[in-house]
Amino acid sequence: MNKKNAFSQKRSLLFLFAILLLGIIVRFYNTPDRFGFDKDPTRDVLITIYGAENLSFPLIGPHSGIGSFTFGPWYYYFLIIFQLLFPFDYAPFYFIPLFSLLFIIVMYFIGLVLRDEKLGVILALIAAISPAQVGPTAGLSNPNLVSVHAALSILIFLFYLRKQQPLWFSFVWGIILGIGINHHYQMLPLLLLPAVAFALNFRKALKEIAALFIGLVITFLPLLIFNFLSQWHTFWGIIAFIRERGGGIYIPNSWKIYLLSFWPTFWSYVLGVPVNIGVLYAILVVGSHGYYFFKKKLSTDYLLLIGIFLIFFLGLRYYSGAREHYYLFFLHPFLMIFIGSTFWYLFQNRLTGIIAVILIALQVFFIFPEDLKRLDDRLDHLTIRNEAKRLINKFPSLSYALYNCQDIEINRAQGLAFFLYRQKKLSENGFKIGLVGPNTSCRLPQNVNKELIPNILDFSQVTPSDLSQNGWRLITPKSVYTTTLEWWKK
What we know:
The protein has helices at 3-28, 39-54, 74-85, 91-114, 117-129, 131-134, 146-162, 167-183, 192-199, 206-229, 233-243, 255-271, 275-294, 300-317, 332-346, 350-373, 379-394, 410-422, 464-469, 477-485, and strands spanning 400-405, 431-435, 451-453, 456-458, 472-474. By secondary structure, it is mainly alpha-helical.
Protein backbone atom coordinates (compact mmCIF):
# COMPACT_ATOMS: atom_id res chain seq x y z
CA MET A 1 0.00 0.00 0.00
CA ASN A 2 1.50 3.32 -1.03
CA LYS A 3 1.39 6.41 1.19
CA LYS A 4 -1.31 8.09 -0.90
CA ASN A 5 -3.70 5.15 -0.52
CA ALA A 6 -2.93 4.86 3.18
CA PHE A 7 -3.70 8.56 3.65
CA SER A 8 -6.91 8.18 1.65
CA GLN A 9 -8.07 5.28 3.82
CA LYS A 10 -7.27 7.11 7.06
CA ARG A 11 -9.09 10.20 5.82
CA SER A 12 -12.14 8.18 4.75
CA LEU A 13 -12.26 6.47 8.16
CA LEU A 14 -12.12 9.87 9.86
CA PHE A 15 -15.00 11.02 7.64
CA LEU A 16 -16.91 7.84 8.45
CA PHE A 17 -16.38 8.39 12.17
CA ALA A 18 -17.65 11.97 11.90
CA ILE A 19 -20.64 10.83 9.85
CA LEU A 20 -21.46 8.16 12.45
CA LEU A 21 -21.38 10.83 15.16
CA LEU A 22 -23.77 12.91 13.08
CA GLY A 23 -25.97 9.85 12.59
CA ILE A 24 -25.96 9.19 16.33
CA ILE A 25 -26.95 12.79 17.08
CA VAL A 26 -29.94 12.87 14.74
CA ARG A 27 -31.09 9.44 15.91
CA PHE A 28 -30.69 9.83 19.66
CA TYR A 29 -31.07 13.54 20.35
CA ASN A 30 -34.08 14.35 22.57
CA THR A 31 -34.81 10.73 23.34
CA PRO A 32 -36.91 9.33 24.86
CA ASP A 33 -39.25 12.34 24.52
CA ARG A 34 -39.32 12.06 20.70
CA PHE A 35 -40.33 8.39 20.68
CA GLY A 36 -43.80 7.92 19.22
CA PHE A 37 -46.55 6.40 21.35
CA ASP A 38 -49.12 5.43 18.76
CA LYS A 39 -50.69 1.98 18.60
CA ASP A 40 -47.77 -0.12 17.30
CA PRO A 41 -45.00 1.16 19.62
CA THR A 42 -47.11 0.92 22.79
CA ARG A 43 -48.23 -2.58 21.79
CA ASP A 44 -44.73 -3.77 20.97
CA VAL A 45 -43.09 -2.42 24.12
CA LEU A 46 -45.62 -4.32 26.26
CA ILE A 47 -45.07 -7.48 24.20
CA THR A 48 -41.31 -7.09 24.63
CA ILE A 49 -41.66 -6.68 28.40
CA TYR A 50 -43.77 -9.81 28.73
CA GLY A 51 -41.56 -11.83 26.38
CA ALA A 52 -38.37 -10.84 28.20
CA GLU A 53 -39.69 -11.39 31.72
CA ASN A 54 -41.21 -14.78 30.85
CA LEU A 55 -38.64 -15.89 28.25
CA SER A 56 -41.56 -16.25 25.85
CA PHE A 57 -40.63 -16.14 22.17
CA PRO A 58 -43.68 -16.14 19.85
CA LEU A 59 -44.17 -18.04 16.62
CA ILE A 60 -45.54 -15.00 14.79
CA GLY A 61 -44.96 -11.28 14.53
CA PRO A 62 -47.35 -8.34 14.14
CA HIS A 63 -50.53 -8.62 12.13
CA SER A 64 -50.54 -6.91 8.75
CA GLY A 65 -52.53 -3.72 8.49
CA ILE A 66 -53.54 -4.39 4.86
CA GLY A 67 -54.44 -8.08 4.85
CA SER A 68 -55.48 -11.04 6.97
CA PHE A 69 -52.02 -12.41 7.63
CA THR A 70 -49.16 -12.02 10.07
CA PHE A 71 -45.45 -11.40 9.66
CA GLY A 72 -42.69 -13.53 11.12
CA PRO A 73 -41.52 -13.25 14.74
CA TRP A 74 -37.90 -12.12 14.30
CA TYR A 75 -38.74 -8.49 14.95
CA TYR A 76 -39.95 -9.49 18.41
CA TYR A 77 -36.97 -11.81 18.89
CA PHE A 78 -34.63 -8.86 18.34
CA LEU A 79 -36.53 -6.66 20.79
CA ILE A 80 -36.87 -9.34 23.46
CA ILE A 81 -33.19 -10.28 23.32
CA PHE A 82 -32.18 -6.61 23.47
CA GLN A 83 -34.47 -6.11 26.48
CA LEU A 84 -32.86 -9.11 28.20
CA LEU A 85 -29.36 -7.75 27.55
CA PHE A 86 -30.24 -4.15 28.49
CA PRO A 87 -33.16 -4.24 30.94
CA PHE A 88 -34.04 -0.55 31.17
CA ASP A 89 -37.37 1.20 30.58
CA TYR A 90 -37.10 2.28 26.95
CA ALA A 91 -34.82 -0.52 25.72
CA PRO A 92 -37.04 -1.64 22.78
CA PHE A 93 -37.36 1.95 21.56
CA TYR A 94 -33.59 2.44 21.62
CA PHE A 95 -32.97 -0.73 19.65
CA ILE A 96 -34.42 0.80 16.46
CA PRO A 97 -32.05 3.82 16.19
CA LEU A 98 -29.13 1.67 17.33
CA PHE A 99 -29.86 -0.87 14.61
CA SER A 100 -30.21 1.98 12.11
CA LEU A 101 -26.57 2.96 12.68
CA LEU A 102 -25.65 -0.32 11.03
CA PHE A 103 -27.29 0.97 7.84
CA ILE A 104 -24.75 3.82 7.67
CA ILE A 105 -21.82 1.40 8.01
CA VAL A 106 -23.19 -1.05 5.44
CA MET A 107 -23.80 1.73 2.93
CA TYR A 108 -20.18 2.83 3.38
CA PHE A 109 -18.97 -0.67 2.51
CA ILE A 110 -21.30 -0.85 -0.49
CA GLY A 111 -19.62 2.28 -1.83
CA LEU A 112 -16.21 0.86 -1.01
CA VAL A 113 -16.91 -2.35 -2.94
CA LEU A 114 -18.57 -0.62 -5.88
CA ARG A 115 -15.94 2.08 -6.29
CA ASP A 116 -13.73 3.38 -3.49
CA GLU A 117 -13.62 5.15 -0.12
CA LYS A 118 -14.99 8.36 -1.62
CA LEU A 119 -18.22 6.72 -2.73
CA GLY A 120 -18.37 4.95 0.62
CA VAL A 121 -18.24 8.28 2.46
CA ILE A 122 -20.88 9.81 0.16
CA LEU A 123 -23.29 6.90 0.69
CA ALA A 124 -22.67 6.90 4.45
CA LEU A 125 -23.47 10.62 4.63
CA ILE A 126 -26.72 10.22 2.69
CA ALA A 127 -27.71 7.23 4.85
CA ALA A 128 -26.87 9.09 8.06
CA ILE A 129 -29.06 12.15 7.50
CA SER A 130 -31.80 11.04 5.10
CA PRO A 131 -35.15 11.97 6.73
CA ALA A 132 -36.51 8.69 5.38
CA GLN A 133 -34.03 6.94 7.68
CA VAL A 134 -34.01 9.35 10.63
CA GLY A 135 -37.79 9.59 10.97
CA PRO A 136 -38.51 5.88 11.50
CA THR A 137 -35.91 5.63 14.28
CA ALA A 138 -38.39 7.38 16.59
CA GLY A 139 -40.94 4.63 16.00
CA LEU A 140 -41.23 1.04 17.12
CA SER A 141 -42.50 -0.96 14.15
CA ASN A 142 -41.35 -4.01 12.23
CA PRO A 143 -40.77 -2.42 8.76
CA ASN A 144 -38.23 -0.04 10.32
CA LEU A 145 -35.65 -2.85 10.32
CA VAL A 146 -35.95 -3.61 6.61
CA SER A 147 -33.44 -1.07 5.24
CA VAL A 148 -30.51 -2.70 7.05
CA HIS A 149 -31.37 -6.16 5.72
CA ALA A 150 -31.83 -4.76 2.22
CA ALA A 151 -28.43 -3.03 2.33
CA LEU A 152 -26.73 -6.15 3.73
CA SER A 153 -28.29 -8.24 0.95
CA ILE A 154 -26.94 -5.84 -1.68
CA LEU A 155 -23.48 -5.86 -0.08
CA ILE A 156 -23.36 -9.67 -0.08
CA PHE A 157 -24.56 -9.64 -3.71
CA LEU A 158 -21.62 -7.42 -4.65
CA PHE A 159 -19.13 -9.58 -2.73
CA TYR A 160 -20.49 -12.67 -4.44
CA LEU A 161 -20.06 -11.13 -7.89
CA ARG A 162 -16.45 -10.20 -7.19
CA LYS A 163 -15.19 -13.69 -6.46
CA GLN A 164 -16.28 -17.16 -5.42
CA GLN A 165 -17.28 -17.12 -1.76
CA PRO A 166 -17.20 -19.99 0.76
CA LEU A 167 -20.37 -22.01 1.21
CA TRP A 168 -21.24 -20.45 4.55
CA PHE A 169 -21.46 -17.09 2.77
CA SER A 170 -24.60 -18.17 0.92
CA PHE A 171 -26.01 -19.62 4.13
CA VAL A 172 -25.59 -16.26 5.89
CA TRP A 173 -27.14 -14.55 2.87
CA GLY A 174 -30.19 -16.78 3.29
CA ILE A 175 -30.37 -15.94 7.01
CA ILE A 176 -30.21 -12.18 6.35
CA LEU A 177 -32.81 -12.32 3.58
CA GLY A 178 -35.02 -14.66 5.59
CA ILE A 179 -35.02 -12.52 8.73
CA GLY A 180 -35.66 -9.41 6.63
CA ILE A 181 -38.65 -11.07 4.94
CA ASN A 182 -39.92 -12.14 8.36
CA HIS A 183 -39.75 -8.51 9.45
CA HIS A 184 -41.88 -7.43 6.51
CA TYR A 185 -42.83 -9.08 3.23
CA GLN A 186 -41.75 -6.02 1.24
CA MET A 187 -38.30 -7.71 1.36
CA LEU A 188 -39.48 -10.54 -0.91
CA PRO A 189 -38.41 -8.83 -4.17
CA LEU A 190 -34.79 -8.86 -2.96
CA LEU A 191 -34.71 -12.62 -3.51
CA LEU A 192 -33.96 -11.50 -7.05
CA LEU A 193 -30.42 -10.63 -5.90
CA PRO A 194 -29.28 -14.22 -5.25
CA ALA A 195 -31.37 -15.41 -8.23
CA VAL A 196 -29.34 -13.16 -10.54
CA ALA A 197 -26.03 -13.91 -8.83
CA PHE A 198 -26.50 -17.67 -9.02
CA ALA A 199 -27.89 -17.58 -12.57
CA LEU A 200 -24.63 -16.04 -13.80
CA ASN A 201 -22.75 -19.15 -12.69
CA PHE A 202 -25.53 -21.70 -12.34
CA ARG A 203 -23.54 -24.91 -12.83
CA LYS A 204 -21.16 -24.07 -10.00
CA ALA A 205 -23.82 -22.51 -7.80
CA LEU A 206 -25.93 -25.56 -6.91
CA LYS A 207 -24.34 -25.92 -3.48
CA GLU A 208 -24.65 -22.17 -2.86
CA ILE A 209 -28.34 -22.33 -3.79
CA ALA A 210 -28.84 -25.17 -1.34
CA ALA A 211 -26.98 -23.30 1.42
CA LEU A 212 -29.03 -20.14 0.85
CA PHE A 213 -32.26 -22.17 0.84
CA ILE A 214 -31.33 -23.82 4.15
CA GLY A 215 -30.67 -20.39 5.66
CA LEU A 216 -34.05 -19.16 4.46
CA VAL A 217 -35.87 -22.23 5.79
CA ILE A 218 -34.28 -21.93 9.23
CA THR A 219 -35.52 -18.35 9.62
CA PHE A 220 -39.04 -19.42 8.61
CA LEU A 221 -39.30 -22.41 10.96
CA PRO A 222 -41.32 -20.54 13.64
CA LEU A 223 -43.74 -19.18 11.03
CA LEU A 224 -44.01 -22.61 9.38
CA ILE A 225 -44.85 -24.20 12.75
CA PHE A 226 -47.49 -21.54 13.33
CA ASN A 227 -49.04 -22.18 9.91
CA PHE A 228 -49.05 -25.93 10.50
CA LEU A 229 -50.94 -25.36 13.77
CA SER A 230 -53.33 -22.73 12.39
CA GLN A 231 -54.49 -24.30 9.13
CA TRP A 232 -52.00 -22.26 7.09
CA HIS A 233 -53.33 -18.89 8.18
CA THR A 234 -50.49 -16.85 6.63
CA PHE A 235 -50.60 -18.68 3.31
CA TRP A 236 -54.36 -18.36 2.82
CA GLY A 237 -54.32 -14.77 4.07
CA ILE A 238 -51.76 -13.77 1.46
CA ILE A 239 -53.69 -15.65 -1.25
CA ALA A 240 -56.84 -13.74 -0.27
CA PHE A 241 -54.90 -10.47 -0.35
CA ILE A 242 -53.63 -11.22 -3.86
CA ARG A 243 -57.10 -12.21 -5.07
CA GLU A 244 -58.51 -8.96 -3.74
CA ARG A 245 -55.84 -7.11 -5.76
CA GLY A 246 -54.04 -5.31 -2.96
CA GLY A 247 -56.58 -5.68 -0.17
CA GLY A 248 -59.76 -4.94 -2.09
CA ILE A 249 -59.26 -1.16 -2.07
CA TYR A 250 -59.31 0.62 -5.41
CA ILE A 251 -56.14 2.64 -5.98
CA PRO A 252 -56.13 4.94 -9.05
CA ASN A 253 -53.15 3.95 -11.15
CA SER A 254 -51.58 4.89 -14.47
CA TRP A 255 -48.17 5.65 -15.88
CA LYS A 256 -48.93 9.35 -15.52
CA ILE A 257 -49.76 9.02 -11.81
CA TYR A 258 -46.83 6.68 -11.29
CA LEU A 259 -44.20 8.85 -12.98
CA LEU A 260 -45.46 12.33 -12.20
CA SER A 261 -46.96 11.87 -8.74
CA PHE A 262 -45.59 8.85 -6.91
CA TRP A 263 -41.93 8.81 -7.95
CA PRO A 264 -41.12 12.53 -7.54
CA THR A 265 -42.64 12.43 -4.05
CA PHE A 266 -40.95 9.20 -2.97
CA TRP A 267 -37.57 10.08 -4.49
CA SER A 268 -37.58 13.52 -2.86
CA TYR A 269 -38.65 12.00 0.46
CA VAL A 270 -35.65 9.66 0.50
CA LEU A 271 -33.27 12.47 -0.54
CA GLY A 272 -34.83 14.91 1.92
CA VAL A 273 -35.37 17.73 -0.58
CA PRO A 274 -38.45 19.54 -1.95
CA VAL A 275 -40.10 17.81 -4.90
CA ASN A 276 -39.00 20.41 -7.47
CA ILE A 277 -35.38 20.05 -6.34
CA GLY A 278 -35.78 16.29 -6.27
CA VAL A 279 -36.89 16.31 -9.91
CA LEU A 280 -33.70 18.18 -10.87
CA TYR A 281 -31.61 15.59 -9.01
CA ALA A 282 -33.51 12.81 -10.81
CA ILE A 283 -32.81 14.36 -14.21
CA LEU A 284 -29.13 14.61 -13.28
CA VAL A 285 -29.03 10.96 -12.16
CA VAL A 286 -30.75 9.65 -15.28
CA GLY A 287 -28.72 11.87 -17.58
CA SER A 288 -25.33 11.04 -16.04
CA HIS A 289 -26.07 7.33 -15.93
CA GLY A 290 -27.20 7.37 -19.56
CA TYR A 291 -24.01 9.18 -20.54
CA TYR A 292 -21.70 6.77 -18.70
CA PHE A 293 -23.68 3.79 -19.98
CA PHE A 294 -23.05 4.77 -23.60
CA LYS A 295 -19.42 5.51 -22.71
CA LYS A 296 -19.25 1.96 -21.30
CA LYS A 297 -17.95 3.24 -17.98
CA LEU A 298 -20.51 1.48 -15.78
CA SER A 299 -19.15 -1.67 -14.15
CA THR A 300 -20.92 -5.01 -14.59
CA ASP A 301 -22.01 -5.28 -10.96
CA TYR A 302 -23.39 -1.75 -11.05
CA LEU A 303 -25.28 -2.48 -14.28
CA LEU A 304 -26.79 -5.54 -12.62
CA LEU A 305 -27.99 -3.39 -9.70
CA ILE A 306 -29.56 -0.98 -12.18
CA GLY A 307 -31.23 -3.86 -14.01
CA ILE A 308 -32.62 -5.33 -10.80
CA PHE A 309 -33.94 -1.94 -9.76
CA LEU A 310 -35.64 -1.49 -13.15
CA ILE A 311 -37.45 -4.79 -12.60
CA PHE A 312 -38.64 -3.47 -9.21
CA PHE A 313 -39.59 -0.22 -10.94
CA LEU A 314 -41.82 -2.00 -13.46
CA GLY A 315 -43.26 -4.34 -10.86
CA LEU A 316 -44.20 -1.47 -8.58
CA ARG A 317 -46.02 0.24 -11.47
CA TYR A 318 -48.36 -2.73 -11.83
CA TYR A 319 -48.79 -3.38 -8.11
CA SER A 320 -52.49 -2.77 -7.44
CA GLY A 321 -52.26 -1.87 -3.75
CA ALA A 322 -51.28 1.35 -2.01
CA ARG A 323 -47.66 2.39 -2.70
CA GLU A 324 -47.01 3.92 0.71
CA HIS A 325 -43.50 5.02 1.65
CA TYR A 326 -43.84 2.81 4.72
CA TYR A 327 -43.75 -0.28 2.50
CA LEU A 328 -40.73 0.72 0.40
CA PHE A 329 -37.79 0.67 2.80
CA PHE A 330 -36.23 -2.06 0.66
CA LEU A 331 -35.69 0.48 -2.15
CA HIS A 332 -33.83 3.04 -0.03
CA PRO A 333 -30.34 1.55 -0.59
CA PHE A 334 -30.82 1.51 -4.37
CA LEU A 335 -31.88 5.15 -4.55
CA MET A 336 -29.00 6.22 -2.31
CA ILE A 337 -26.54 4.26 -4.44
CA PHE A 338 -27.76 5.99 -7.60
CA ILE A 339 -27.59 9.54 -6.26
CA GLY A 340 -24.31 8.81 -4.47
CA SER A 341 -22.76 7.37 -7.62
CA THR A 342 -23.84 10.45 -9.55
CA PHE A 343 -21.98 12.63 -7.07
CA TRP A 344 -18.97 10.30 -7.33
CA TYR A 345 -18.88 10.64 -11.12
CA LEU A 346 -19.00 14.43 -10.81
CA PHE A 347 -16.04 14.33 -8.43
CA GLN A 348 -13.87 12.75 -11.13
CA ASN A 349 -13.37 16.17 -12.72
CA ARG A 350 -12.32 19.34 -10.92
CA LEU A 351 -15.02 21.52 -12.48
CA THR A 352 -17.85 19.02 -12.06
CA GLY A 353 -16.46 18.25 -8.60
CA ILE A 354 -17.33 21.81 -7.59
CA ILE A 355 -20.85 21.16 -8.88
CA ALA A 356 -21.00 17.98 -6.79
CA VAL A 357 -20.00 19.90 -3.65
CA ILE A 358 -22.72 22.47 -4.35
CA LEU A 359 -25.34 19.76 -4.93
CA ILE A 360 -24.40 17.89 -1.74
CA ALA A 361 -24.41 21.14 0.23
CA LEU A 362 -27.81 21.99 -1.22
CA GLN A 363 -29.16 18.59 -0.23
CA VAL A 364 -27.80 18.94 3.30
CA PHE A 365 -29.29 22.45 3.47
CA PHE A 366 -32.77 21.03 2.84
CA ILE A 367 -32.29 17.88 4.90
CA PHE A 368 -31.42 19.43 8.25
CA PRO A 369 -34.69 21.36 8.68
CA GLU A 370 -36.52 18.11 7.89
CA ASP A 371 -34.43 16.19 10.40
CA LEU A 372 -34.94 18.88 13.03
CA LYS A 373 -38.70 18.45 12.70
CA ARG A 374 -38.22 14.80 13.61
CA LEU A 375 -36.30 15.68 16.78
CA ASP A 376 -39.24 17.44 18.44
CA ASP A 377 -41.11 16.08 21.44
CA ARG A 378 -43.94 13.69 20.64
CA LEU A 379 -47.13 15.08 22.14
CA ASP A 380 -48.78 11.65 22.46
CA HIS A 381 -45.78 10.36 24.43
CA LEU A 382 -45.62 13.33 26.81
CA THR A 383 -49.39 13.41 27.33
CA ILE A 384 -49.59 9.73 28.31
CA ARG A 385 -46.51 9.94 30.53
CA ASN A 386 -47.90 13.01 32.34
CA GLU A 387 -51.21 11.23 32.83
CA ALA A 388 -49.41 8.32 34.48
CA LYS A 389 -47.45 10.73 36.70
CA ARG A 390 -50.62 12.51 37.84
CA LEU A 391 -52.26 9.22 38.74
CA ILE A 392 -49.24 7.91 40.64
CA ASN A 393 -48.61 11.19 42.44
CA LYS A 394 -52.23 11.51 43.56
CA PHE A 395 -52.50 7.93 44.83
CA PRO A 396 -48.90 6.78 45.48
CA SER A 397 -49.90 3.75 47.54
CA LEU A 398 -52.15 2.15 44.91
CA SER A 399 -51.47 -0.25 42.08
CA TYR A 400 -53.98 -0.45 39.24
CA ALA A 401 -55.88 -2.86 37.04
CA LEU A 402 -56.32 -0.84 33.87
CA TYR A 403 -59.40 -1.27 31.69
CA ASN A 404 -60.02 0.23 28.26
CA CYS A 405 -63.06 0.32 25.99
CA GLN A 406 -62.24 -2.25 23.29
CA ASP A 407 -59.61 -0.76 20.92
CA ILE A 408 -60.72 2.86 21.29
CA GLU A 409 -57.70 5.05 22.10
CA ILE A 410 -55.71 1.84 22.53
CA ASN A 411 -52.41 3.71 22.20
CA ARG A 412 -53.28 5.74 25.30
CA ALA A 413 -54.26 2.61 27.24
CA GLN A 414 -51.16 0.64 26.24
CA GLY A 415 -48.89 3.63 26.86
CA LEU A 416 -50.36 4.20 30.30
CA ALA A 417 -49.96 0.48 31.07
CA PHE A 418 -46.28 0.75 30.09
CA PHE A 419 -45.58 3.63 32.47
CA LEU A 420 -47.57 2.10 35.33
CA TYR A 421 -45.87 -1.25 34.86
CA ARG A 422 -42.41 0.29 34.94
CA GLN A 423 -43.28 2.02 38.21
CA LYS A 424 -44.62 -1.30 39.60
CA LYS A 425 -48.10 0.22 39.69
CA LEU A 426 -49.84 -2.19 37.31
CA SER A 427 -51.46 -5.37 38.60
CA GLU A 428 -54.33 -7.58 37.46
CA ASN A 429 -55.56 -7.56 41.07
CA GLY A 430 -55.01 -3.85 41.58
CA PHE A 431 -57.47 -1.01 42.04
CA LYS A 432 -59.70 -1.14 38.94
CA ILE A 433 -59.75 1.98 36.76
CA GLY A 434 -61.29 2.73 33.37
CA LEU A 435 -60.01 5.03 30.65
CA VAL A 436 -62.67 7.19 29.05
CA GLY A 437 -62.57 9.81 26.34
CA PRO A 438 -64.76 11.53 23.75
CA ASN A 439 -64.97 8.36 21.61
CA THR A 440 -65.72 5.87 24.38
CA SER A 441 -68.67 3.71 23.29
CA CYS A 442 -68.72 0.99 25.96
CA ARG A 443 -71.55 1.19 28.49
CA LEU A 444 -70.39 2.55 31.82
CA PRO A 445 -71.27 0.39 34.83
CA GLN A 446 -74.04 1.73 37.04
CA ASN A 447 -73.16 4.32 39.65
CA VAL A 448 -69.70 4.90 38.21
CA ASN A 449 -69.13 8.63 37.96
CA LYS A 450 -66.12 9.29 40.16
CA GLU A 451 -63.03 10.50 38.33
CA LEU A 452 -59.72 9.77 40.01
CA ILE A 453 -58.13 12.21 37.60
CA PRO A 454 -59.64 13.63 34.38
CA ASN A 455 -60.82 10.84 32.02
CA ILE A 456 -59.91 8.01 34.41
CA LEU A 457 -62.84 6.50 36.31
CA ASP A 458 -63.05 4.47 39.51
CA PHE A 459 -64.16 0.93 38.60
CA SER A 460 -63.29 -0.56 41.98
CA GLN A 461 -66.89 -1.57 42.76
CA VAL A 462 -67.45 -3.34 39.44
CA THR A 463 -66.67 -7.00 38.86
CA PRO A 464 -64.31 -8.01 36.04
CA SER A 465 -67.10 -10.08 34.44
CA ASP A 466 -69.43 -7.07 34.29
CA LEU A 467 -66.69 -4.99 32.73
CA SER A 468 -65.96 -7.68 30.16
CA GLN A 469 -69.65 -8.03 29.22
CA ASN A 470 -69.79 -4.31 28.48
CA GLY A 471 -66.71 -4.32 26.23
CA TRP A 472 -64.07 -3.25 28.75
CA ARG A 473 -60.69 -4.99 28.32
CA LEU A 474 -57.93 -5.44 30.86
CA ILE A 475 -54.66 -4.00 29.54
CA THR A 476 -51.44 -5.66 30.77
CA PRO A 477 -48.26 -6.88 29.05
CA LYS A 478 -49.68 -10.41 29.26
CA SER A 479 -53.07 -9.50 27.78
CA VAL A 480 -51.47 -7.56 24.90
CA TYR A 481 -49.01 -10.38 24.22
CA THR A 482 -51.79 -12.98 24.23
CA THR A 483 -54.20 -10.92 22.13
CA THR A 484 -51.58 -10.05 19.52
CA LEU A 485 -49.57 -13.25 19.30
CA GLU A 486 -51.58 -16.14 20.76
CA TRP A 487 -55.07 -15.47 19.41
CA TRP A 488 -54.79 -18.52 17.20
CA LYS A 489 -54.59 -20.87 20.20
CA LYS A 490 -58.21 -20.20 21.15
